[in-house]
Design goal:
304 residues; mainly alpha; 11 helices; rod-shaped
Length: 304
């Protein structure tokens, strides 16, 4: 089979058209890949440069921390009791001074009242021993020359005996003497209890006065927190330390006052019991002499 020239030309043109179509298809397929490869290559530049202006964002953090060193420089370095007192507020200082004065007053009352009670009980015990050893009223008349409680009892009884020299009933004399001695015993108890009421007042109010200083000191600590804009312990510690010192002084003043008041209450009750023993000894002596008729013989001698 022979191929003519026209057939050959048609074959060549068909081949050329097919080659051009294949070339166009290949270029079309390569163009999207090339564009997608170029777009990511250009995009990293703005993505990497974006975080650069954000590096200065943490600037507010130094604004909160920077006041702390300035506040620390102004804090008192001495946290001893005297240093805390000197750095305290004027109200807390007044509370501390008042509590110290109350404590000094408590110990002064204890010292003075303890000496007074011990001496009075010793003298009263000696007088009770002398009254117990006496056999008649004339043996104890010398006791009325002193200035102690027993001397006052003997003097009161002797005064009533002289004023009742013309009495007809011995029972009436004893009743009047007992009334005098009872009043003297009550007066001695009131005299001994004098001053102990201050101890009761201090023991009852000192803790609350110290608590007032505590509240005021803690309030100053919170004010310091608000001014320094920080909760650093170094800023809060001085105010809290002053508050606790006021509390401690309140307890130091109150606890001894309560203990001393209770101690004096027992001592005064014992003193009044001794006073009652002395009165009973005097009444026994007078009753004995009344039964013997000693005072009747004296009245008869006085009448003659």
């Amino acid at each position: 089979m022979k191929m003519t020239f026209s057939d050959m030309s048609r074959s060549i043109s068909f081949f050329v058209r097919s080659a051009l179509l294949a070339a166009l298809l290949a270029v079309g397929l390569l163009m999207p890949g090339g564009a997608s490869a170029q777009v990511p290559a250009a995009s990293p530049a703005p993505v990497e440069s974006a975080p650069v202006p954000q590096a200065a964002a943490p600037s507010p953090v130094p604004q909160i921390v920077t006041p702390a060193p300035d506040a620390l420089l102004k804090l008192p370095k001495d946290l001893s009791p005297w240093g805390m007192f000197m750095a305290a507020d004027i109200v807390v200082k007044a509370v501390m001074v008042g509590l110290v004065f109350a404590s000094v007053l408590t110990w002064t009352i204890w010292f003075a009242k303890a000496l007074e009670l011990l001496a009075a009980r010793r003298r009263l015990g000696e007088a009770i021993a002398a009254l117990g050893a006496a056999r008649s009223w004339s043996d104890v008349r010398d006791l009325q020359t002193g200035k102690d409680a027993a001397s006052g009892l003997v003097a009161a009884a002797d005064t009533e005996l002289r004023q009742s020299a013309d009495a007809l009933s011995p029972e009436g004399v004893k009743e009047r003497i007992a009334s005098r001695l009872e009043r003297l015993e009550a007066a001695a108890g009131r005299q001994m209890i004098r001053g102990t009421g201050i101890l009761a007042t201090i023991g009852a109010t000192a803790p609350f006065v110290g608590l007032f200083g505590t509240v005021w000191g803690i309030m100053n600590a919170f004010i310091g927190i608000s001014k320094s804009h920080t909760t650093n312990l170094a800023v809060v510690a001085p105010g809290i330390a002053e508050a606790l010192l006021a509390t401690a002084l309140g307890l130091v003043a109150a606890i001894p006052a309560v203990v001393m008041y209770n101690m004096f209450s027992r001592w005064i009750a014992g003193y009044r019991a001794l006073h009652g023993d002395a009165s009973a000894a005097i009444l026994r002596l007078i009753s004995r002499d009344l039964d013997r008729g000693t005072f009747n013989r004296r009245r008869g001698v006085a009448a003659e």
